[in-house]
Amino acid sequence: MPRKRLTLKDKQKKKQQTSFVGRTEQLTAFQENLNLSAESDAFINIFNIYGQGGVGKTTLLRKYEDSCGRKDVLTAYTDEGVKDVVDFMASVASELEKKGHPLKKFNERYKVYRQKKQELEADPKAPEGLAVFMESSIVKKSVLGSESGFVGLIMDMVYTNRLSKYEGKWEWANFVAKKIGNKDEVQLVLEPIEVLTPIWLEGLVDIAEDQRVCLLIDTYEMVSTFLDEWLYKVIDNRYADFDANILLTIAGRHPLDENRWSAYAEFCAAFPVDPFTEEEANTFLDQRKITAEPVRAAIKKLSGNVPVLMATLAKASPDKVEDLDDVSHLAVDRFLKWIEDPNKRVAALYGAVPQELNIDVLKQVLPEDTAAEAFDWLQSMPFVQKRAKQWAYHPVVREQMLKYLRLRSLEDWVELQQKLYAYYQAKQSALNIEQQKQYKNENWQQFALRMLYHGFCGQPEAYLPTALNAFVAALDEKQSFALEVARTLRDAEVDTELAQERQWGEAMENALEEYDKEQYRKLERLMKRLLDAGHLNEAQRPLAYSWQANCLRLSGEYERAIELFSKSIGIRKDYKEAIFYRGLLNLHFVKYEAALSDFNRAIELDQEYGWALANRGETYRQLGKYEAALSDFNRLIELDQEYDWALVIR
């Protein structure tokens, strides 16, 4: 019988596993739990490991995964690479399929969801703002959450004059319904979480009936904003029954929220992961055959016994250490000095600059003929990991590398950032995508984010206006991409050590997260701050005023909203959406002439602006001008026979 092929990578991984140090309590508790029946009162369903960056949470999670493998427990690992709940479910399904356990029903529906969503976004006839509409939870609740159904909701809207609640989004809902046709598929596109979760869970439970399943969720601090509430609902049977034979292992910088998870506290084990104890640190160094006491002392002092920094320093395997008086407080300073090969030293330092690591990227910061060899060497380093579906430095080590590089040579820092900016700019240009299709292309978006990061890192002050305008433009096109812009700017501000009071990214991120929870104040204040800063160009200022106005409108501050919509229109005379919304608010205040003026102007700008026609018709109806109202409703039906609500009102 031929032997199973063993690669050098396999040997390296095996050696790393056998040299695992410490974490005995966390590992033993998990392994003993695997021996228990799910019916046992002592069985733990949720393992939560938490601690600062670099203490080995990912390594421990991988040890859990190995333990599961030895017990024939099926596993699926995810990290910050997932972008939302649906992406998380798809990632788990993909992992399970690789191991011979496909979630067939989920995969089929998910494929339909992706296909229909792409068709809608690519349709040149799609109403403006469709992508934002499809991402908005409040719209989904409004469109699909009415107890009285579609027609009943229209009647409620018309006869109670609650137009502001439903906004202008019936035009978009009608477009989705007409484009897709199938009622189930319409619901799938508008409510993917509600539709897909029970199907996903059904598949997971089917597997768990015959084989235990363990979901391993890493870097939870990066995904908890969208995953935590949903995950709790999943185990709380809000979508379907959650099988007790399914394990959750969650690793992040913070413990799970006690207020949310307290109901399941007795089935949850929370383990803090701290830097190595003195005994563990000594064992770690013993395993790596580092015996010189001055070297051991230097490694422990510089690393603070943080495992990833200890591993980084130990990898250089020094025989002696110089006097510590001239050593920087950064562990990477000593690590770099211990690397004798100058090419490897440069590769370790410059390789930290890009956010992703591959040979093509390394060619931008290193001599081309050394990039492949450098990449292979970096992959063998303990601080280089596959994270979010790409190779990258461990954040703790990367942070120190970047800090060291900035201290060593600001000119080198700027030059490297400019090279990477030019690289991604060239890749984006090579896509040759029309402007109206750019926000629908994932590659274009990713290159735009890389350009934003390196452009800002290279020249923070000069690039700030570009970054702020990019955020507002993205927000008006695709809210999920605007969130990515905010997070990228946040990362760039942190990596350039920008003072907290001068930062924007975190405030943008928080405002969008609150907006998605139907809390509008933070985004309204952010728009005001953006406008007051004076960096927005003529194209983005009216958008910012309109978003600020819309937040005020949704908060019930209609008069201030009208003022800001007017400011937006004052800058951009043909901004039909702002004109329409001002008309909507004028109608709310029973200012019929002003409302008609706005609706007339919006329709003049777009003869097929269905929602403006509908509200002009409703204004005429309230004025008793029934022939004019009937004319507008007839025009709507001419435009589209499937305007059910226009038929009802007529």
Can you walk through the features of this model?
Keywords: Repeat, TPR repeat. This is Tetratricopeptide repeat protein. One of its GO terms (biological process) is receptor-mediated virion attachment to host cell. TPR repeats lie at residues 576-609, 610-643. By secondary structure, this protein is mostly helical. The protein folds into four domains: 23-30 and 44-84 and 92-100 and 212-225 and 240-257 and 269-274, Rossmann fold (3-Layer(aba) Sandwich), CATH 3.40.50; 106-194, no CATH class; 278-408, no CATH class; 419-645, Tetratricopeptide repeat domain (Serine Threonine Protein Phosphatase 5, Tetratricopeptide repeat). It is built from 35 helices and seven strands. The chain has a five-stranded parallel sheet, with helices on both faces. It has a two-stranded antiparallel sheet with strand order 6-7. A hairpin with a 2-residue loop joins strand 6 and strand 7 (390-393). The longest helix has 22 residues, at 410-431. The termini are far apart.
